[in-house]
C-alpha cells in the first residue's frame, strides 16, 4: 500500500523548497537594506545550500531553480564585496557567469573583487565587458566608467614607473661594464714589501748590461800546449815487412 504524501496529493516538494528559499532570500534583502551585510550573507548562504543540489525537476521548476540560484549568488557577491571577502565574491560571481557570461552585475562585482586583490588587469577586462552589457542601467554604467577610468590611470602610472626603473637598471649596468673595462686596461705594477724594513719594493724590467770589452793578450803570447817533435833524420829507419 502506497502511503500518501505528507505534502498532500497535489504538492511538489521541490517547489516547496524553492518557496522556502525565496522567503529566506527576502529576509536577506531586508537585512541588506539596513547595511547588515554579514547577517544578510548568512541568510543567502542558507537559502543557496537548501536548493543547490535539487534535481529531478520538471522544466518549469528547473527554470525557477536556476533563476533563484542566480539571484542568491548575485546578492552573495554584493555582500562579500561590501565585507571585502574578495575570494568569496569572485566565487559567487563566477557561478552566475557560468550560466550568463555577459551578466553586467556579476562582472562588476568580480571587477571590484579583483581590484581589491590588486589584479588591475583582470578588473579592467571585467569593466570593459560591463560596458557591453545591455542589462546595466545608465547609473550603473556611469559607475562602471568612473571605476574603469581610475583602474586604467593606475595601470598607466605603474607601467611608467616600471619603464623608469628598467631604464635606470640598464643605465647602472652600462656604467658598471664601462668601469670594469677601464680597470682591466690599467698597467699593473708589482709591489712587494721588504720583510725586514717594511719598505715597499717595486719591481721593474731588468736593464740591459753593456757587453764586456776586456783587452785580450796577443796570440803569440799565448802558451802552446803542443810538444816539440824531434827532426826527421834522427828517427830510426822503418823495419821491413816480412
UniProtKB/TrEMBL annotation:
Compositional bias annotation for Low complexity:
176-206
Keyword set for this entry? Repeat, TPR repeat
List where Pro residues composition bias occurs: 233-242
Which InterPro entries does this one have? AIP/AIPL1/TTC9, TPR-like_helical_dom_sf
Q: Where is this region: Disordered?
A: 171-242
Q: Which domain of life is it from?
A: Eukaryota
Which PANTHER family does the record match to this protein?
ARYL HYDROCARBON RECEPTOR INTERACTING PROTEIN RELATED (PTHR11242), TPR_REGION DOMAIN-CONTAINING PROTEIN (PTHR11242:SF0)
Question: What is the name attached to this protein's record?
Answer: Uncharacterized protein
What is the native source organism of this protein?
A: Paratrimastix pyriformis
Amino acid at each position: 500500500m502506497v502511503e500518501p504524501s505528507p505534502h498532500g496529493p497535489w504538492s511538489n516538494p521541490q517547489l516547496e523548497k524553492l518557496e522556502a528559499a525565496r522567503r529566506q532570500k527576502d529576509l536577506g534583502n531586508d537585512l541588506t537594506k539596513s547595511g547588515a551585510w554579514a547577517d544578510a550573507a548568512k541568510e543567502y548562504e542558507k537559502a543557496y545550500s537548501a536548493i543547490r543540489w535539487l534535481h529531478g525537476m520538471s522544466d518549469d521548476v528547473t527554470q525557477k531553480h536556476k533563476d533563484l540560484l542566480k539571484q542568491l549568488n548575485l546578492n552573495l557577491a554584493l555582500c562579500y564585496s561590501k565585507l571585502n571577502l574578495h575570494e568569496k565574491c569572485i566565487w559567487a560571481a563566477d557561478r552566475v557567469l557560468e550560466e550568463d557570461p555577459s551578466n553586467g552585475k556579476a562582472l562588476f562585482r568580480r571587477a571590484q573583487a579583483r581590484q581589491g586583490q590588486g589584479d588591475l588587469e583582470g578588473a579592467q577586462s571585467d569593466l570593459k565587458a560591463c560596458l557591453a552589457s545591455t542589462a546595466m542601467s545608465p547609473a550603473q554604467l556611469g559607475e562602471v566608467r568612473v571605476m574603469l577610468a581610475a583602474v586604467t590611470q593606475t595601470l598607466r602610472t605603474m607601467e611608467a614607473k616600471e619603464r623608469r626603473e628598467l631604464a635606470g637598471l640598464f643605465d647602472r649596468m652600462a656604467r658598471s661594464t664601462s668601469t670594469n673595462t677601464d680597470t682591466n686596461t690599467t698597467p699593473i705594477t708589482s709591489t712587494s714589501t721588504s720583510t725586514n724594513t717594511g719598505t715597499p719594493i717595486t719591481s721593474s724590467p731588468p736593464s740591459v748590461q753593456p757587453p764586456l770589452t776586456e783587452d785580450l793578450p796577443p796570440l803569440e803570447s799565448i802558451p802552446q800546449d803542443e810538444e816539440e817533435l824531434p827532426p826527421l833524420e834522427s828517427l830510426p829507419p822503418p823495419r821491413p815487412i816480412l
